[in-house]
Amino acid sequence: MCNLIVYIDIFIPTLADMAGNGNTDGEFSFSAAAARDALPRITTEKGAKSTTSSDVCHDDTASRGNFQTIDQLHSLQKKRSAPTTPLKEGGGVVMGTSGPTTPVSGESMLQSVSASLASLTRETGPKVIRGDPTSAAKVAHVPQTPTSVPAADVSDSSLKFTHVLHNLSPAELYEQAIKYEKGSFVTSTGALATLSGAKTGRSPKDKRVVKDETTASELWWGKGSPNIEMDEQSFLVNRERAVDYLNSLDKVFVNDQYLNWDPENKIKVRIVSARAYHSLFMHNMCIRPTPEELENFGTPDFTIYNAGKFPCNRFTHYMTSSTSVDINLGRREMVILGTQYAGEMKKGLFGVMHYLMPKRKILSLHSGCNMGKDGDVALFFGLSGTGKTTLSTDHNRYLIGDDEHCWSESGVSNIEGGCYAKCIDLSREKEPDIWNAIKFGTVLENVVFDEHTREVDYTDKSVTENTRAAYPIEYIPNSKIPCVGPHPKNVILLACDAFGVLPPVSKLDLAQTMYHFISGYTALVSLLSSSKTQLNKTFRLMRNESMVAGTEEGVKEPRATFSACFGAAFIMLHPTKYAAMLAEKMQAQGATGWLVNTGWSGGSYGSGSRIKLAYTRKIIDAIHSGSLLNATYQKTEIFGLEIPNEVEGVPSEILEPMNAWEDKVAYKDTLLKLAGLFRNNFETFTSHKIGEDGKLTEEILAAGPNF
Ligand SMILES: Nc1ncnc2c1ncn2[C@@H]1O[C@H](COP(=O)(O)OP(=O)(O)OP(=O)(O)O)[C@@H](O)[C@H]1O
Ligand SMILES: O=C([O-])CC(=O)C(=O)O
Ligand SMILES: [Ca+2]
Ligand SMILES: [Mn+2]
């Protein structure tokens, strides 16, 4: 065990230095990353075709279980065991005596971390030291060097040590979590169950982006934009709050990792956080460097300060709650206050990629991606819960990634090194690969398990409906490492249409693909009524004064969501910029667009039923194999969608939605209602030109519903 102490002279940037940080000439660029020798170059398949898919994301924060206090939240997590459970209190886990080690990166890493944590307002930052504070007893014996002599106006914080737990292994992070973070448990399959706290989904209303001279003109601001402005000064206030909080702790976790498997466009990220849960989550979700890469990591391109356990100050300008997720592109930094939901880090970095990649003529996509044995690549776009992860994880195909990709001149690359699967109602039969990925190393968020056997009940939404599993991509047996592939042949737009009027599958022309990509439609409903037993169980748990009789069953209406580019929450530029790039790439590669409804059939939510996953998989198979391209088609009224007369393994009655509805009048009314919602939503885009000549704009407008 090494008890090295390093005293570091910390460079304190002045405001003048800061002004010059990355933003002087109005150009934002990250240093060119060194190529990863180990990675083969992306090969381009000439003349390959691709289709568009869509992915819809939405805010999960509303779907919160019934808890008012931390203790209530904790009591939800562990279910009472079956009566055979031994009644043993406090039979906790015995911790190993040795603290975590830091295998690589010595003094230069510590210097770099110290610089990251340096205070911007005081004379100095913390002294950093590697390893767990439990080994600090020995540290105290190390003689002080002259550099540690306090200056006259030194503050207490500059006298203390902050222990740095740098790139710990999953096993070490498990131990840290179980020992110090309430609500951390090992499940029966070896996953780490954690609680994300009061927030169980992202908080898009609390997202802020620094508006400076550069970003004012470059980014999309105003109505419909996810970028809510803040000024540099308020960012610095929040940054200092986060850094001071982190420095006040005995220890911080630091992850140094990569984004983007394309060796020419990879980004180095550093995540400083207070929780082992956050460190393990990012270990799984970002690309993990090899020990050699870590040794030569150098200065990160982007840094996250996750002080989510600590709130922001509402007296700070631009703050409207105690939660704030702040992105400063000029400083290449992100600050998180007041939410511990780990998805903020994942999706915050995705936003940064949506800014950086288009500058390099690379399209960033909220999509899943997989590849067949013959090298045919498919993209799956869609908002949250529409099936990106479920359908890109396919036993017969190579998984390139489940959520975030780049499409460059050379092909596609995954931005991440892991997957983030929804696990509500997860079943071994329907989603075997995801089921099997929930093992040692996987972070399981907000699930409920048996207090004795530690078996997870995936149907239980007592904490939240947004239960999640975060695992390294190699936990999926047929993942493609490195996660890159040739140009897409099929672009599949997924919509979970709870109105039940969109066909299970339709073939799109380029203008229609663009229309639906820009619209980014889905309609979800609460999964509450998916099973009657579950409903009763949940309501028993939720029964309190706010529970009104009659709200219990079937009254939930489907709600349409339109999210431009199937990811409006993450885009930085105007949606038409991404759409133009997609159109150009699809055209150049001859990719085919498809619209797949993974939602309701035979009626809206309440009367119809969700299309069986097995049928959707057959549809997707037929797209991949090319057989669907050769089917015979007919055009639907209003939306003008080309629907096939036959798909192998799918009952033909459901292919034309009207046939599946008993009440044809209700069908027509619902169809018109949805068409109206599409039209209203698209109005904001009618004044925007797409592409050079704007000719495509006319075609795209004409590709919407006609009534
Ligand atoms: N016909 C169907 N097609 C796809 N998914 C279905 C279908 N029927 C039910 N499901 C369920 O819908 C959910 C789809 O969620 P999934 O995790 O794939 O969403 P996602 O698009 O990856 O969202 P996010 O961006 O939030 O990660 C899964 O729980 C899946 O089991
Ligand atoms: O970010 C999240 O919490 C979940 C997600 O993948 C999405 O919403 O697209
Ligand atoms: Ca997903
Ligand atoms: Mn997503």
TrEMBL record:
CDD domains given for it? Answer: PEPCK_ATP
| Source organism superkingdom | Eukaryota
Ranges for region Disordered: 43-63, 75-95
| Pathway assigned in UniProt | Carbohydrate biosynthesis; gluconeogenesis
Q: Which reaction does it catalyse?
A: oxaloacetate + ATP = phosphoenolpyruvate + ADP + CO2
> Which PROSITE patterns does UniProt cross-reference here?
PEPCK_ATP
| Entry annotated with the keyword Nucleotide-binding | yes
> What's in the keyword line of the UniProt record?
ATP-binding, Lyase, Nucleotide-binding
Q: List, alphabetically, the InterPro entries matched.
A: PEP_carboxykinase_ATP, PEP_carboxykinase_C, PEP_carboxykinase_N, PEPCK_ATP_CS
What EC number(s) is this enzyme filed under?
4.1.1.49
Which family does the UniProt entry place this protein in? Belongs to the phosphoenolpyruvate carboxykinase (ATP) family.
- Its name, as the record gives it, is phosphoenolpyruvate carboxykinase (ATP)
Please give the organism. Brassica napus (Rape)
Its taxonomic placement starts with:
Eukaryota, Viridiplantae, Streptophyta, Embryophyta, Tracheophyta
